[in-house]
Amino acid sequence: MAFFDLPLEQLKTYRPEIRCPADFDAFWQQTLQEAAQHPLNARFDEVKTPLQTLRVFDVTFAGFGGHEIKGWLMVPHNLEGPFPCVVEFIGYGGGRGEPVDHLTYASAGHAHLVMDTRGQGSGWRKGDTPDPVGSGPQHPGFMTRGIETPEAYYYRRVFTDGVRAVQAAQASELVDPQRIAVAGESQGGGIALAVAALSHQVKLLMSDVPFLCHFERAITLTDSIPYVEIANHLRVHRDRWEQVLGTLAYFDGMNFASLCKVPALLSVALMDQTCPPSTVFAAFNHFAGPKEICVYPFNRHEGGQTAQLLQRLKFLQQHW
Q: Distance between CA 113 and CA 58 in Å, rounded?
């Protein structure tokens, strides 16, 4: 795959107009207030694993609507807590998997809470959290589930789950509640960006090749999954373009970035057709806080992989 998006010099200054709904703040304030009516009920049940250097806890907490959300919490076995904590969100279609899938942060001396994504976990790694909410007609996948209105849209529930995951991490006596970072790749990076803007408890953001940014350009620039799900939906529902964009504006990473002021580390791959580089730079260039971005010119959606993971650990070390 050759370069297909704007040249890097243009990407560095690409800052499209933000179309943030007038009631954006009120919408999310109301959403989180409704979630707060449900007791968090965070539980941490220690489980036995073959891992000798880590302690592992099966996590359960109440997310959007009081729905039960699963996760893992891992901490170093022979160190004194409380620990700074990385709350991580998963890429599209994946679930929390098994504890052995998540060794790095706890091995480096951090607590690590991995949130299962509701309704996902059958695409490439298993999950354990259902989404009990239905929707109107949708294209297969998650991108158009409830897309008729912001109130019904799937990612309203997921982003709220993410904010509640941060609260669940803080509820553990093993976690330093003043040192919480959020992280993720692709969909996970998009969720992390939203949660960093919505939760005042988040102190650091690490978002790699983030999905869910600059929807209007992404839908018309790439025909790769998952953005193509929206285009396919509109191919059938030909009269819904403005309605769909109106819903997506409440979930656009560009809008969250303009409100987020915590230190942030992002990454982008210039041959990425899943999350086109201009959509990532649109969020990065609007980001309101201290920021840095790692650019991988010849990578696709895999991004920097281990090289970027090392950058994350360096970023955490610098700030903690």
A: 10
Q: How far is residue 93's CA from residue 108's CA, in Å, rounded to a whole number?
A: 27
Catalytic site includes residue 45: no
Sheet strands side by side (includes 175-185): 43-47, 54-62, 68-76, 111-115, 83-89, 175-185, 204-208, 264-269, 291-296
The response to whether 154 counts as a known ligand-binding position is no
Establish whether 186 is a catalytic residue: yes
Contact in structure between 225 and 141 (CB atoms under 8 Å): yes
pTM of the model as a whole: 0.97
Q: What is the pLDDT of residues 66-88, one digit of tens each?
A: 999 999 999 999 898 899 999 99
The catalytically annotated residue of 5, 116, 131, 272 is 272
Is 301 catalytic? The answer is yes
Query: Which of 116, 161, 186, 267 is flagged as catalytic?
Result: 186
Domains of the chain: 8-319 (3.40.50.1820)
